[in-house]
Amino acid sequence: xxxxxxxxxxxxxxxxxxxxxxxxxxxxxxxxxxxxxxxxxxxxxxxxxxxxxxxxxxxxxxxxxxxxxxxxxxxxxxxxxxxxxxxxxxxxxxxxxxxxxxxxxxxxxxxxxxxxxxxxxxxxxxxxxxxxxxxxxxxxxxxxxxxxxxxxxxxxxxxxxxxxxxxxxxxxxxxxxxxxxxxxxxxxxxxxxxxxxxxxxxxxxxxxxxxxxxxxxxxxxxxxxxxxxxxxxxxxxxxxxxxxxxxxxxxxxxxxxxxxxxxxxxxxxxxxxxxxxxxxxxxxxxxxxxxxxxxxxxxxxxxxxxxxxxxxxxxxxxxxxxxxxxxxxxxxxxxxxxxxxxxxxxxxxxxxxxxxxxxxxxxxxxxxxxxxxxxxxxxxxxxxxxxxxxxxxxxxxxxxxxxxxxxxxxxxxxxxxxxxxxxxxxxxxxxxxxxxxxxxxxxxxxxxxxxxxxxx
Length: 456
What we know:
Blueprint: E1 2-9, H1 13-23, E2 27-33, H2 39-45, E3 50-54, H3 65-77, E4 82-87, H4 92-100, E5 105-108, H5 113-142, H6 144-149, H7 159-171, E6 178-181, H8 188-197, E7 206-210, H9 219-224, E8 225-226, E9 238-239, H10 241-244, E10 249-253, H11 260-272, E11 274-275, E12 284-285, E13 289-294, H12 298-303, H13 309-315, E14 318-321, H14 331-346, E15 353-354, H15 356-364, H16 370-384, E16 389-390, H17 392-395, H18 411-428, H19 433-440, H20 444-454
Parallel strand pairs: 1-2, 1-3, 3-4, 4-5, 6-13, 6-14, 7-10, 10-13, 15-16
Antiparallel strand pairs: 8-9, 11-12
Helix pairs in contact: 14-16, 18-19, 19-20
């Protein structure tokens, strides 16, 4: 059976019945109608792959002008529609004219079933091929920056990073939704791509969407797409990011920035696994792996009713918390050497190492911008360096951002406080995890992780 939806338009009930009875055994879905005036409604509500269009509708007509008119109308809606014209009056000149105007094929009535199926089968292959090419063109257009820049891989030996890599290897082969938490610049996109690269979808598209940079008015059109004429500048149909990511992974960065109305729209798509383009009413099924990220405290936002709890449940089947760079110890030098090599190669320089004073400065610095800031610092240092070593002055670090131990919060005291709050909530609710999690503003899964972390 062909995975195609066929629309048959003919004013003869016998023709419609005959075609439907035969084709319903050969294709996924058959839709019939008697008047071409219903075309707009049918195309807007259904994902049509092949259209069988009669050439004549007025009594006694045989010149095919009506069929050519409606052919042009259909192709003005979408030039990629596959249209097969049908007529009881064989005319070579008319067939040639129809093909020139964009028809895919031409079939005479009454037809032989084998001939009809062969024609439909060829048309279905053409439709699939056209859809694939169109999707690749849209992906290339949307992802041009990502395709040219490539992706960094995870670099680090800190215990927290090793544990995250261990979790990543478990999670990646599944289709579980992943929420990545961490300060700005900690490498959330790098981890997201690493999950995709180790998944069953690694040969499909990785679609990165920065929700923080997306204008609220463009949210629906960018994520879900739009139909031609949906608004003033909608000059052609455009699939959204979810459609382009079909079969692959979509990474929604800065999800905490979404307003409540947009959260509701996103939740509906994630629950139904369908999208509806602006200006259309038909639903399109999607198959994507979802990864999200934010630097915002979503559990606190849920408690304050600024983030939907049902959306949080939907996106955080697995939760990864990335550590700040200042907590990663010797990883700072490991990453610095990695970036030094990358940028030395990029700028054709022969830089061998970081000077001792440069290493000391890197370790003492606060790194408010985390790994991203370190990357920019090393790129600038490589550009500015005149010798084989990177000197402290090449780093150009802000003196106000060196570590001042007396001004830093006592991290051990904060952990002890968190442990005490977890113990208190569990004791108060006599071990009821759901009630304790609700009081703490956590999900059950997040609370279980803290219980394991603190050995409670």
